[in-house]
Write a structure and sequence with these properties.
The chain is α/β, with parallel strands linked by helices. The chain has helices at 13-23, 26-31, 37-44, 46-49, 58-75, 77-97, 99-106, 144-167, 181-188, 190-194, 197-200, 212-215, 223-232, 237-250, 252-259, and strands at residues 5-10, 116-122, 129-130, 135-139, 217-218, 221-222. The protein folds into two domains: 1-143, no CATH class; 181-259, no CATH class. The protein is built from 15 helices and six strands. Helix 7 (99-106) packs parallel to helix 8. It is globular.
């Protein structure tokens, strides 16, 4: 079985500045209500809350963020390098014991044309990903076990995306973005797939999807109950993904309204 290698790197300064600046744009909260971006950013960098105003435009926000982040990342540089080293060791282990089980669950082989999964350590109040290029970003101050849990969450998305491409090979599939149907499928499928007994026993932390998927009702039931029904009644992983995707598509407007 071919398995990709993990590469752990520091996120460069410019990426950190752009990422934090973009999270603080007021329009982002309006476009995507799934996560409280501004609140999480101010929680990670409370010094920004003192200087960022709601009336600031993008360039002003970026200048303020740059000033604070340059000092912070310079001060924490030795710690970040040590965390890169420690996380690399743990991900090398994860590659051997977790990834084969997940690939077996999804009934798919990893493509040799995608030899690497790259994990960047940056200043991240939320953890972004790119499933097309198999890149993910983790906050460098996150304790090691929770950082691993974050990586596992994103790997689940990577494998699901590859499975989806293998099922629908005639479709041109780009990076799923909120509020696209495939984005919701990736996020909701974390619950059944990472809590499968053969997978769950390998994990230090239980994995959960966004809380609103458990509380917001679609057709009279919490959204997660519909997804779990499709998972438990599947005849194959492809069958589950197609049924779940179809349900999300049919109820997409209501799901976006209720679940962000």
């Amino acid at each position: 079985m071919f398995l990709p290698k993990f590469i752990v790197k520091e996120a460069d300064l410019e990426w950190n500045i752009n990422f934090i600046s973009n999270l603080l744009q007021p329009e982002l909260t309006i476009q995507n209500g799934s996560l409280p971006f501004r609140e999480r950013t101010f929680g990670l960098l409370p010094e920004l809350k003192e200087v960022i105003k709601i009336s600031d435009d993008h360039s002003i926000i970026k200048n303020k963020v740059a000033k604070i982040l340059k000092d912070k990342l310079y001060k924490d540089n030795s710690y970040i390098k040590e965390k890169v080293y420690m996380l690399q060791i743990e991900l090398d282990k994860l590659r051997c014991y977790f990834l084969p089980e997940l690939l077996q669950l999804f009934e798919i082989d990893w493509l040799e044309s995608e030899p690497y999964i790259t994990c960047y350590l940056g200043c991240c109040p939320v953890f972004p990903r790119k499933v097309v290029t198999k890149e993910l970003w983790i906050n460098y101050s996150t304790i090691l076990d929770k950082a691993l849990a974050g990586v596992i969450h994103e790997i689940d998305h990577f494998v699901l995306f590859n499975k989806w491409k293998s099922i629908h090979s005639n479709e041109l599939v780009s990076e799923p973005e909120h509020p696209e149907v495939l984005w919701f499928l990736e996020e909701i499928a974390v619950e059944p797939t990472l809590n499968e007994p053969t997978i769950k026993k390998l994990l230090s932390y239980p994995q959960k999807a966004y809380s609103q998927f458990y509380t917001e009702k679609i057709l009279g039931k919490p959204l997660i109950e519909h997804i779990m029904y499709f998972y438990q009644s599947r005849v194959s992983m492809a069958d589950f993904l197609n049924m779940a995707y179809g349900f999300i598509l049919a109820n997409h407007t209501e799901i976006v309204k209720k679940c962000g």
